[in-house]
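Project standup — Tuesday

K.O.: blocked on the structure for the chain from last sprint. Re-posting the sequence here as requested.
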Amino acid sequence: MKLNFNSMTRGVVLVLALFLCNFTFAQRTITGTVTDAETGETLIGANVLVVGTSTGTITDFDGTYSLNVSEDATALEFSYTGYGSQRIEIGSQTVIDIAMSAGQQLEEVVVVGYGSQKEKEITSSVTSVSAEEFNQGPITDPAQLLQGKVAGLQVYNRGGDPNGRSVIRLRGISTVGANTEPLVVVDGIIGASLDNVDPNDIESVTVLKDGSAAAIYGSRGSAGVILVTTRTGQKGQGVQFSYNGQLGASTAFNSVPVMSAEEFVAAGGTDLGSQTNWTDEVTRTGITNVHSLSASGGSGNTNYRVSGNYRNVDGILNNSGFEQFNGRVNLSTKAFNDRVSLDFNSSFTNRNSDYGFNEALRYAVLYNPTAPVFGKDAPFPFASDQYGGYFETLGLFDSFNPVSIIEQNRNQGKRTEVTYGARLGYRITDNLEVSGRVAQQKTTLANRAYYPTTSLFRGNATSPTRKGRADFYDEITSFQLYEGYATYVNDIGSRSNLRVTAGYSYQQNNFESTYLSLGDFPNNIQDYGNLIQTSQDLQNAGFIQANSAVSPDEKIIAFFARANFSFDDAIFLNASVRREGSTKLGEDNRWGIFPALGVGVDLNRYLNFNRVDLLKVRLGYGVTGSLPGPNGLSQPIRQVVNGADGSVSTELIRAANPDLKWEEKAELNFGVEFGMDRFTATLDLYNRDISDFILERTVDAAVFGVDRRFENAGRLTTQGAELTLGYDVVNSSKVSWNTGVVLSTYKTTLEEYVIPQEIRANLGAPGQNGTNLIRVAEGEEIGQIWGPVYAGVGENGAPLLSDINGDGQVIGDQGNALNPEADFQVLGNGIPDLEFGWTNQLRLGEWSVNAFFRGALGHSLVNTFRAFYEPRISSQSSYNFVNTELVEEGLTAAQFSSLYVEKADFFKLDNLTISRSFSFAKDSAIRGLTVSLTGQNLFILTNYTGTDPEPALVDYGSADNGGEVDFSNPDVLSPGIDRRYNYFASRTFTLGVNLNF
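H.V.: unblocked you, prediction finished:
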């Protein structure tokens, strides 16, 4: 079956429009007032829903409501945050007033794919986090709001680079050959960018963790799904304004311990006559400003919210940080007796980044501490003008003045992102509603890097005649989404309820980029616009590089359906199926089917344990897929060959594979949910089986005409457990204390792979670029750090290695790392055995304290700074020495071993916020004021001697002698390496003000 999208796409909106004709139904209007049972005060924004339908409204500023219902409507359900929900039979009533009681357990409604469900009815592993539970402080990446808050969700931004993106994993890696991060859905827009959502605009986040929950999203849900709901206005209220301001200061929390100038000279280092703390020279106190202003309100059937957010963030590394403006509009309205609904949202982000150069931190560690910053301060004649006035240790490999790197060179970028989405719904009857959604997103990226003729770093070091370098990179990505679906809701008898959703989805992605690199400039022109004109020799192939890329239309079409059935408010069934096709796959295998089934039972409904509110068991099974990143992997690749006689021909370099198909993940999840008075607990046990990775393999050239093509191969399994505990220690009107813990553990085994075993992740230069650190083997756990075992110092200063197998000889050279007779073993694992977060929320009258602790146990890190610069190598007397408590006296040779693999267990006070709320008179223009003080990364307990003990879940390879890191190609099979180009961790204090008026 071919993928023909055009006619179907055009028809979606037309089909929906047909439903907007006039129907006449027998209706009546019910009105009433909702109040607090104890105080008698009216409740604003209470939900009123016609049972068994999607028809509903909320109470206005006076606590009143008005709702049109059909003559066959049987009951209304009233709910309000912090109050017990109530069901009232309608009968012949036209006025229904209700008094609600606080303190009862509320049946929360949770957003899921293409709709919402009562939390009690969910049969999958789903966790929802509200804005009140988010991490506090000047968050630069929205993913950090969830760090440590959801069991099984890993969010790590090692070092805290303000321009760095967090590594996000849900229940470990979901693939080795495609996308490993969860799908993001913002206000129903599949694949929307999380970078285009300001943290202050997020109302809640729901994480679909297991396959039965994510299967409704098909090929893009294999790594899990993160559903983001942004803030909206409330009906029945006037215009309300809210201002949120933050002022933060960040300093380096930790750095690599190195020798002072005096210690360095005493250890035999080359004395250049100065005393310089290079880390101090390239770091600073980073100042952060955040200002957010929003206006929200509602009138009649319309509500709205408009916000503007400004962020100016300085990193602790000089000349690093960003300035960003974000705007968002959310609008909802209803018409024609609430039968027609329209939701519209749009966002715009403009971000100017100064990426700086993380390498300045690396060279601040290793640069000679007796070297001066400027050439004029050198103890010998120095042509300082040649290097912009900076001192350089010429002739040394991998040695650059860190101040010169960060001050002379420029590394900047601009990203502009625009997203809009609209959902149109029409309620044909009280039981049936059809919806259509249209969304588009466009991202423009322009990065510029410039290295003047006076800079020795990058390019000029390896090509001194180049005379400067300028890099231009431009990228445009766009996304389109068209969806139509219908939802049917109905009561079956008095004890059962059925909800069915079915629809169609069309997605299209496009990408294009250009890259240009120039050199040979007559002088140091800082204007990017003049660089091309001033390059002296554009014809010299050594000084110019250019390439471009344009993707075909990347299309996905899908048909999906889901049914939710509840019986006796205690037995719940959920089933879904999605049939999906993609242009990225082989011509013969473009379509896949992704089913899911879940069942849940509230046992307490029948066992009726004393004081137990909920005892639900659930079982879910779902299949999801994963697409390759690049296009055209199923197609043949040819290259042009110029013959010696002047002829031109082509030759095949990669064979086609029309059978290339999805990677597939099948997941089984068992869960138990328990609630009793003030205590809640949720336990999930899961098993994942992931197969058919999309990998380039060596094949038989006699069969395929060439020895390379992409195929489906390999399998890995993951078993894990997650536990969430919550307890209200104190719960009174003036004092409350709530504490909660989330814990998760998992183990991933590579069952089958294209190579039975290999070692990967090169340590790098100088001197150890033949050393690989990670072993990957079939049938074994992922994350093995592999190497010889350190046994002491030999007479000649070389490391002694252990005879692990006891055969009387030590084979510890890298060339024999996979030799069964060699003395190598697992030295640690880069993936934690246990990760946890501990939240404490304390309220004392108008004061509140939020303390959040986080930690990980059982993982190790390769400390690459120690591996290179801790041995006292006499030939490296111009490089500083790392000086940790683990230094081995007398060791004068560098060779990787267990000596440099450290346990990185940690426990930290990640976030502490103390706030004070101020109340005002009812007639005051100010509705509320809250002042807060937040500290991030306040203390950490760990034995790791590096800058940051947090797990390194991916590896980007080594970068030496000023080389560049390719962050676009993460190696997910090589966790556990603390590279020398990582950003340093920081501690931040923030003063915050929230004003509502």
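K.O.: great, moving the ticket to review. Residues 1-106 form a domain with the Immunoglobulin-like fold (CATH 2.60.40.1120). Confidence is low (pLDDT under 50) at residues 5-25.
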